[in-house]
Every structure is written in C-alpha cells, then in structure tokens.
Amino acid sequence: MRHLLSAADLDRTQITEIFDLAEEMSLVQGRPVKKLPALRGRTVVNLFFEDSTRTRSSFEIAGKWLSADVINISAKGSSVSKGESLRDTVLTVAAMGVDALVIRHHASGAPWQASHWIDAHVLNAGDGTHEHPTQALLDGFTIRRHLRRSAPDLVDFEGKTVAIVGDITHSRVARSNVLLLSTLGAQVTLVAPPTLLPPGVDSWPVLACTDLDEVLPHADIVMMLRVQRERMSGGYFPTPREYTIGYGLTRPRLEAMKSGAAICHPGPMNRGLEISADAADAANSLILDQVAAGVSVRMSVLYELLGGAE
Ligand code: NCD
Fold first, then answer.
1. Is 164 helix (H, G, I), strand (E, B) or coil?
2. Alpha helices in the chain (DSSP H)
3. What average pLDDT does range 271-283 have in this prediction?
4. pLDDT digits (tens, 9 = 90+) for 152-174
5. Most buried by CB count within 10 Å: which residue of 37, 79, 120, 259?
6. The pLDDT value given to residue 230
7. Tell me, what's the pLDDT at 79?
C-alpha cells in the first residue's frame, strides 16, 4: 500500500492486518513509556485545512509513539492564509523531504490530487464530504473489539447489522464506513430524513430507511453522525427539535435498542441534537473507545505505509 486515500483501497485481508497490528500497537497505550523505535528518522507532516481535535492529535500521537518526527501545519497561521494554492503548499512541504503527508481539506479529492504531485505517502484525514478512511478503520476496529467480547473468535462482520444514522449527505465518515463495513461483511443500514440521504444511495451496498424506530431493535451497532451545520446551506430539516424527535438517540430510544447493541459517534457530538447525554454516556457507548482506537489504528496505518519493507 502506497497511499491511503479511500476505504475502497482496502480488501478484507488488508483491513484485518491493520486491525491485528493495531491490537499490538494498543499495548503501547497502557505502558508508562509510550515509545517504539519503528519509524525513527521518518518525518510525517499533518497538513490540516479544516478544524480537527481527534484526527490531528491522534495522528500526531501515533507518529510520535512510533518515534517519527511529526510536524503540524494548519491553514490558519500558514501561507495558505496569504493566498498560496493547495498545489504550491503541498509541493513546498514535500520539497523539505517529508516521508508522509496527512491531509485534511474541505475539497473532496484534495488528497488524491496531492498524491499525484509528490512522491511522499499521502493519507486522507478527511476530504470534504468524500471520505475519511482512518475514521472508518478505527470504527471498524472498535466494533470488532466490542463484538469479540461476546464472540472471541469472530473474524468478520457477516450477519451483523450496523445502522448509520443522521446526516449521511454531508458525511465522509458514513461514505468510508459504508465501504469498509460492507467489505467486512456487515449489513449497513443508513437511516436519515429523506433530505439527508444523498442522491444515488440506491447504488450503494446498503439498505436505506427513513424510520429510526423501525431499525433500532435490529441493529448490533448504532452509529450516530453529527449534524454538519457548517456544510449546510439551510433547509434540510424544519427545526433542531424536530430533528431530535425523528432522528435523535434519545433516552426512550436507548431502551428500544437490541440487547448487547452498542453506540458509536465519530465526534464531535452535538449533545441534545443527534445524541442525548444519556446515550453518549451510556454503559454501551463506545465513543471514548473510538478515540483510544484512533491512536492504535493510526500507528498501525503509519507503520504499514512507512515501516517494514522500506
Ligand atoms: C468527523 C470529520 O471531521 O469528518 N470527525 C472526526 O474526524 N472525528 C466527523 C464530523 O466532523 O462530524
């Protein structure tokens, strides 16, 4: 694997390899000295043109725990705010001799473009409404761990249902998860108001439904999505209150979930809108496990790209 641009770049064997290595990497998290020498002498640049808490810091921690040198550049405070083009910024950073470029950009396809301009490995950390492959990997890894608690020998997600609920239209997390979870054999069911189900969803490998209460009792995993108001030009739903009534994971809906089912959310959450505090903090919420998994999975991916054979 040279770049990680889309969850479609990965087959079931590769995903399983990344998960298995992430399990090993997660052992570092519990140690007093969190350092492996694997990527000593390698340089990773995080180039973030959009805001981020989890993704940027977990890529940074992952690189540092593998002993890579990690540099963070964000659009605010860089020459981007002086009008420099994406291509010039990417070429400038690459000219310094970096080994991997982790890019988040508001334009779908920006990391793919960058991978054609430079020799360094490119990792997509979220591009517009297109994809966020490491988020899908960390979600899949968290789900596998959860399912293995009751079925230790589980290898894939055949026979399991994952409901992805909310703002599908604007969600790169949903697009990458549809690809990754269906590659692993899960039945993915998208649940959203008709206005937030993207056109063309009929050709995706999913079921689509507009009634959350119909889906909830059957889902093994309920993945709530943030309502991405910064990507909306208005008019997708009447009021926040009505959205919550139809599509929020409220306290009564928690009771309607299948026994043993778990809750995911990629963060950041709008508490009280798509997810209630009761659900976010419930015993079956995996939300902080997802954050922890973000570091292990990104260590695994950086090692796959930069370590080993090279
Ligand atoms: C997501 C993103 O930025 O795509 N967050 C994340 O990376 N954890 C989802 C979101 O912003 O809603």
1. strand
2. 12-29, 54-65, 86-95, 110-117, 133-150, 172-183, 212-215, 240-247, 251-256, 277-280, 287-306
3. 98
4. 999 999 999 999 999 999 999 99
5. 120
6. 84
7. 83
What pTM did the predictor assign? 0.97
Q: Which residues contact 137 (CB under 8 A, 6 or more apart)?
A: 7, 10, 15, 18, 19, 22, 180, 297, 301
pLDDT band at residue 200 using 50, 70 and 90 as cut-offs: very high
What is the distance between the alpha carbons of residues 107 and 130, in angstroms, rounded to a whole number? 8
Domains, the chain, with CATH or none: 7-131+294-306 (3.40.50.1370), 133-290 (3.40.50.1370)
Using CA atoms, how far residue 73 sits from 44, 121, 124, 300, in Å, is 11, 17, 15, 22
266: CA distance to ligand 1 center in Å? 6
Measure 176 CA to ligand 1 centroid, in angstroms.
12
